[in-house]
Structure formats: structure tokens, C-alpha cells
Amino acid sequence: MLGRNIKLENIMNDLKVGDGAKEQRPFEYLLKSAYVNDNSVHADAVKLKAPFPIDPEDELRILLQSIGFLDLTSLSADDTYATISKLCCSAVKPVHDVKSLAGDENVEIRTASVCVYPNRIQDAAKAMSLYTSKPLPIAAVAGGFPSGQYPLLTRAAEVAWCVEHGASEIDIVVDRSLVLLRKWGELHKEVNTMVVAGKGAKIKVILAVGECGSLENILRASLVCMDAGAHFIKTSTGKEVVNATLPVGIVMCRAIKIFYSRTGKKVGFKPAGGIRTYQDVLEWVLLIKKELGNDWLSPSLFRIGASSVLASIVKRIAVLDNQIQESRKSETTK
Ligand SMILES: O=C[C@H](O)COP(=O)(O)O
């Protein structure tokens, strides 16, 4: 038996709220009463759309920091060693020297991890060893990615296999039918089984929000996945028609906040899928700052999953770097 079979109604009775006091209401009550006001969430999301203009030095700092949040991803059916090697090379040296920074600050700019299919884990490990003496974590997708429509036994075995072959982070998918049919006990069991199979690896649970039916389902599924042991909750696989959106991000962050206030446990958040531009990244960073605060602005609690946003960030960094240097020059010649 790979996982502990925990009954949802028995699990949360003794959880604590943030101040250490006992939470009286059981988790099941919280789950049943969890409610989303869709209109107000959508209105809050619109406010995140207009954070510009930002001071160039602040923007540069945020974009450089955001590289460190990236799970630099390649999840294509035609990935080969060559693709993964290129990915790893970009991950360990994502930008050329930024002249407006001190030299040693440049050395620290790397992505949080690389994210690949299980069969490419060893390619990533090999390539990483060629490019750096301090390899980045390798994340693998598993658990019947991207659909989750496979037996739990093989999905859990896939998680264990990935860990044995060198992945320290596993991005698993949920079976969307359990969310749509609100089978929360079964969802809890599935996620917990895969967490246990990961033997301590960081488990990011992908809800595939575009296929969850409603914001309320997303809120409830987020709570269940965290209670089942998810270290991160993640929006999307990148393969759904609708992937990461700001309203969904708000709801998932609020679930993280509720869970934290009940348990004192900080669960991470990973938007992924369709994040393509540096403006998207700025919006997600702002969302985290507003909803969860600066504590979450760290790779241990915030990741961005993206296969093709890095080029946009790097291009913008070069523009800002030039702009800052020009303005420093003109300051000194005054
Ligand atoms: O987990 C990451 C996603 O697969 C990335 O999606 P993307 O290719 O739309 O950036």
C-alpha cells in the first residue's frame, strides 16, 4: 500500500489557527462552507492589470528576482537531449551580465529549477553537470500528466520512479473528474498517496483550473490538496485550453492564506501555462505581494512555470539596464 488512507472528516479537528488557538470548526465544515464571490474576485483581478509604469530600477530588480522564481520548462513530445541541454544552459545562465549591477550579483541569477518529462530527467542531470558545479533542482511532471486519467497505482509508481531517477520536485496532476463531481475524500486520498510515494520530494499539485468547472471548485480542491500534503498548488499543465488566469490565482492564494491561518503551514503557489511576457510576470508578482505578502516572494513558496517567458524577461532587462546606465551617466555629467 503506497499511501495512508485518511478520512477527510477525521483529519482537521485538531488543527491550529495562526495565533496558536484551537480552530473549533472541522475541516469538513470549512470545505462545505467555502464560497467564492466571483464578481468581486474578477474585479480584484482587473486592478492587477494596471501596475504600470514602474520605476526602471524597481522593475529591473523585480524582473531579476522573478528569474529566480522560474521553473524553466520544456514539455514537448519531441524533446530530446539537445532540447533539454539547451534548457539547462539557459537555466544556469539566463542573462548576460547586467551592467548596472555589481559583478557578483550577476552570478546569483539562475532559475529555480528545470521542469521536464520523466524520460528526460537523466538528460537534465547530465546536461546540468556539464554547465555547473551547483546543479539546479530537476522537476518532473508525473501522476498521469497531463490528464490524470490513469489508475492511481501507476500514477503513484510514476512519482516514485521520478524520484528514484533524480527528480527532487514532482508536479502531479489531479483527476479532474473528482473535482467536477466534488469527490473530496477521493481527491484527498489520491493526492496523499502520491505525496507519500514522493518520499519527501517537493510535490506540486496541478489542479488544471481550466477544467475544474468553477472558482468555488478551485477553492475547495486547493484546500483538499493542501490538507493532503501538497507542498505547492499549481494552476495548470499548460495543455488545457484555459491555463493560468489572475482570478484563479487570487482564489488559490486565498485558499493558501486560509490554510495557513488554520494550520500555520505555508504552502507554495505556482501559476503555470500561458505565461509568455514580462508584463504577465509583473502581474503575478504583484498578485502574490497583494494576496500573500512578501514572505511568499521566495522560490521556496512561489514559482512560475513557463516554457517561453524567459526571452521576454531577458529582452526587457537589457532595455532597463541601458536606460539605467544612461540616466546614471547623465546624472554624473550634470
Ligand atoms: O508547467 C509548466 C507549463 O507546462 C508551462 O506552460 P507553457 O508552455 O504554456 O509556458
Automatic annotation (TrEMBL):
Q: What keywords are assigned to this protein? A: Lyase, Schiff base
* Catalysis performed (reactions): 2-deoxy-D-ribose 5-phosphate = D-glyceraldehyde 3-phosphate + acetaldehyde
Check the record and name the Pfam families matching this protein: DeoC
Quote the EC number.
4.1.2.4
Q: Which CDD domains match?
A: DeoC
| Classification via SUPFAM superfamilies | Aldolase
* Name of this protein: deoxyribose-phosphate aldolase
Q: To which species is this protein native?
A: Nesidiocoris tenuis
